[in-house]
Description:
Two copies of one chain form a homodimer. Chain A is built from eight helices and two strands. Chain A is mainly alpha-helical. The first copy, chain A, starts with 8 loop residues before the first helix and ends in a 19-residue tail after the last helix.
Amino acid sequence: MPVAMKFDLEKSLEILERTPDVLISMLQGISSDWTSVNEGGESWSVYDIIGHLIHGEKTDWVPRTDIILSEETDKNFTPFDRFAQFEDSRGKTLGRLLQEFKMLRERNIEQLRSKNITGEDLAQTGIHPAFGEVTLKQLLSTWVVHDLNHIAQICRVMANQYKEEVGPWTVYLKILQS
Amino acid sequence: MPVAMKFDLEKSLEILERTPDVLISMLQGISSDWTSVNEGGESWSVYDIIGHLIHGEKTDWVPRTDIILSEETDKNFTPFDRFAQFEDSRGKTLGRLLQEFKMLRERNIEQLRSKNITGEDLAQTGIHPAFGEVTLKQLLSTWVVHDLNHIAQICRVMANQYKEEVGPWTVYLKILQS
């Protein structure tokens, strides 16, 4: 394997600040055929994934950063609700969700920048409900990978709509195998 | 599984016409740390993937559509060169490749629209070097899924840069397992 990057706050922000525009470029105005269908069972549609990203902006990344950096002795994170979007997104268009996500992300990046996080801060810890002690560096790295994970998932959910239509090419398209 | 979409040219164009802006939103101006590293061995960096997409615009999708719809009796496709980008991209910046891809894609979509493709055209066939007979509908469906496949791959290549940095969260991030 090539040498992987070490965590870098500015380079992490390069990804985090781009995600709303990536999603808007990809999804604003496309037919709901692409965005309302899931991969079967309890899996998520594109619409559900955007609601999940919004819930993360509200309850996960910055609130957990605040817990880690606070003076309080209780460092336990509030468990994340993976199903909150089914209630929160109700009645909203995808376009409105995309704009809401963009607004929340911009505000969160501003808040993160205003903290002037140091190398020492990155080593501070909080208590994750399943993993126990985790560092701020791990939390912020996860925020970046979580964005990329869900952009890739959105691609996969949409690609699967044409799984039959590609015929024999399916064997060359890794996204249809996963 | 939910009912998948049937091929629809307009809905396919919704994806195809968005891809250049998706890639520009994601990649224009970010540090080369994210874009110059591959996943080891003969795998591709983000930079290599954009070169591959450019080569597809030049030699694959529209030229093969032309073969399928032509009056010629020889319907054999020219085999696609999966390594052409290593020569073609040499000396070009990623920003320049992104603009080149956008320009080529716009031209190809114009050409595709100008053909006024009918349902009968979609059933016409060409000869793929590995698969034999394939339809225009399969080729155009594959063009769409191929875009989504490589956007997802770009996300994965970048996410893998932080594979170690996320610590225990790796188990929740499907993109790091594939």
